[in-house]
Design goal:
With 428 residues, the protein is of the alpha/beta class. It is 22% helix and 26% strand. The strands form four sheets. The chain has a ten-stranded mixed sheet with strand order 1-2-4-3-5-6-7-10-9-8, sandwiched between helices.
Length: 428
């Protein structure tokens, strides 16, 4: 397959840099990424890495997380939040790795675009079957997500195996069949440039042809795209919406529209809630660099996996006590347009804190793009950082460390105040 490394270079560089920072994050749970061999039919010799949290449900859900071109399963594991979300919610993550030239997945050959036709989709489904058999994975709760080449594979897997996957979330992808070629090439410039425009029924027919005769339920779909994407251009976002609203038999007119963040526009089709058949998030002014901070969590919420065994307690978190019973130390490492932070939350009271939320206001122009050891929402303005599953308790006279990566427009300052479970903390 002929691919240009620069195509997805921005994504690879960003995730590699993020992975470097994560090395210095506070210690994680004992769970680790492991490679699995001999997992079943694998016609294109994919590699499989598996992340099983320390605590999983008796019948855990399975999330397949598919990397970008030039990437790998381990890089996608270290550079995205899916493993930390698995720690929090108790599902298992499968990370496939492409092995062909350019490390791109096959989303274009006739073999890839039909059920059991061979190539990468067959190997990925074998990985799912392996987890179902060896780790008691729940076949009714299997999901797939991916970025760029992995987003294209997300579309392909939902088309080829609607009976395997319950939902998908595609970051910067193209519709099923958009990249199809018959000359052995793995690149389709017409599609990549957003020039392949079809009617909803035409797009839907491509999906239905992948599994002739199938009449069962179809997986739900969530799509994300940046308006300034110059690699897989923005018109592909609208074509994906056309395709999946047609496949799922819902109107192309949104049932619900909102803005989860100032530059995000979210539309839902066929329903107004988080379980809508199709959800689409357009990100204004952003290029080929998704997922950004908070988007992985949005995908997991769309899948319905936010009630797992390691979720924070549903009861009211233990307050830290009187003002001054907590102390926050906040350090910044900044460069031209970006920064990272290290935050230590110390419990200076005499009783443990069980479940915590740290609230602070970022200086203007700062926007969180990723984080570790906590979830952060929204990405700018007044932010709430909530504990992960493994650090929900801060013992008396103990502390936890969290952090995040952000962009900035010149102001690299620190928040002026912090509250922990509603009580003010000392700073410094």
């Amino acid at each position: 397959m002929r691919m240009k490394a620069k195509v997805f270079g921005a994504v690879a560089a960003a995730i590699a840099l993020m992975a470097t920072w994560l090395v210095f994050a506070p210690s994680a749970p004992a769970a680790a990424l492991t490679e699995v061999t001999g997992f079943g039919s694998n016609p294109s010799n994919l590699r499989m890495h598996l992340y099983v949290p320390d605590t999983v449900a008796p019948r855990p859900a399975i999330v397949v997380a598919v990397h970008y071109c030039t990437g790998s399963g381990p890089a996608f594991h270290s550079g995205t939040e899916f493993a930390s979300l698995a720690d929090r919610y108790g599902f298992i993550v499968v990370y496939p790795s492409a092995t062909r030239s350019g490390n791109c997945f096959d989303v274009s050959s006739p073999q890839a675009l039909r059920r059991d036709g061979g190539s990468d989709p067959v190997g990925i489904v074998s990985m799912v079957r392996y987890v179902e058999q060896r780790h008691n994975g729940d076949p009714s709760r299997v999901y797939v997500t991916g970025a760029s080449s992995g987003a294209m594979m997300t579309n392909v897997l939902l088309g080829d195996y609607p009976d395997v996957f319950k939902a998908g979330a595609a970051f910067m992808g193209v519709p099923f069949g958009c990249f199809a070629t018959t000359d052995g090439s793995g690149w389709n410039s017409t599609c990549a440039n957003g020039n392949l425009i079809r009617t909803p029924p035409q797009w839907g027919d491509l999906v239905r042809a992948a599994y002739p005769g199938y009449s069962g339920p179809r997986p739900r779909m969530q799509v994300f795209h940046g308006t300034e994407d110059t690699t897989l251009r923005y018109p592909n976002f609208g074509e994906e919406i056309k395709q999946w609203t047609n496949v799922l038999g819902v109107s192309q007119t949104p049932s619900f529209t909102d803005r989860p963040q100032p530059n995000w526009t979210r539309t839902r089709y066929g329903g107004s809630g988080v379980d809508a058949p199709v959800e689409a998030i357009s990100v204004q002014g952003v290029g080929h660099s998704l997922p950004l901070g908070g988007m992985a969590d949005m995908a997991i919420r769309f899948f319905g996996l936010t009630g797992g065994p390691t979720s924070p307690p549903t009861s009211t978190p233990t307050p830290p006590g009187d003002p001054g019973a907590c102390r926050v130390t906040y350090t910044v490492n900044a460069w031209n347009t970006g920064l990272t932070t290290g935050i230590t939350i110390a419990n200076t009271g005499s009783a443990p804190i069980n479940g915590w939320s740290l609230v602070f206001t970022l200086p203007g122009g700062q926007t969180i793009t990723s984080g570790w050891n906590a979830t952060y929402a929204p990405a700018s303005g007044q932010v709430t950082a909530r504990n992960a599953g493994h650090n929900a308790t801060i013992p008396a006279n103990g502390s936890v460390g969290i952090g995040f990566q952000a962009t900035h427009t010149g102001n690299t300052g620190k928040p002026s105040s912090f509250t922990l479970n509603g009580a003010a903390c000392a700073v410094g």
